Fold this sequence. Notes:
Keywords: Isomerase. The chain is an alpha+beta fold.
Amino acid sequence: MNILSKFLFLTLVVAILFSCDKNDNDTVELRDYQEQYITDLANIEEFMKTHYMTVVNNPGQANDMDVVFTKIPTGGNQVSVWNQTDYPIQTREITVTQNEVDVNYKIYYLKLREGSGVKPCNVDNILAGYRGEYIYKETTTEGTTTTTKVLGKQFEENKSPQTYLSLYGGVIRGWSEIFPQFKTGTYSENLDGTISYNDFGAGVMFLPSGLAYFGSARSSIPAYSPLVFTIKLFELQRADQDGDDIPSYQENVSTSDQGYMYFLPKGEVNPNDSDGDEIPDFLDSDDDNDGFLTRFEIKNLTANPVFTYPFDEIPTCGTSGNGKKRHLDETCHN
């Protein structure tokens, strides 16, 4: 190796070592989830109080239920999102364990139209149109006066979705919390091959960053940004995560929070974990932990041909007397 080559090699090594050392020292520690939520909630409420919205209610047209948010000008008399009564503000409150700490979230949302079809479970797949904005603060100084405004900026829009998205792991947490509050609609194919959607559920959700991307910047979305989504729920596909031939939405045995499946912290009783093995039924191929797979316990093996019972017709176990369907009763086997 000649002298020049050695010099270049040593320079490259030093540069790599210096780069690695610099990155290690520049590692940014994530903010506290609860503290960030308080900041996000204040910004969301300020956005709702300083903006008004225009809703296009035009059934059967491509722009039906489009929403535009506009900053109320100084001295303007427009009714803010916060004070409008056409679409009453609704909330969903949840507790999420993040960094081993329980964080209590309030999600504001507006139900522009509920929809005429069926509601998805929070683990189903959905076909949805949407428009996304992130909320940010802008500070300007004019003379001796400094003004701070809370504004929104669009980062994405998809009016004609072609792909189903999974509410279980395929989208941000806020979507899986709010979409089950809406229903699908109807659709028809036009002569040119396009699809027209009608009577679909439509609304707006205001999400704290902890239920979105939190400290991760995404494309044009800055880290720690609260997000505003205008949504349209066109269609859904029922999911069966554990492949036991029972759609996941039917494995919710809780009567208090229909439409939602959750993992819970270790030690907490999960009503959707029938055998208490800390695996929710919708992910458990043996729901009663009796060594017999659920998909076989719900079959009628005496019929010719053998068939799988519809969920509502799955027999209970007559010998145990506890009234459970037989795939949930460890004392009963097909």
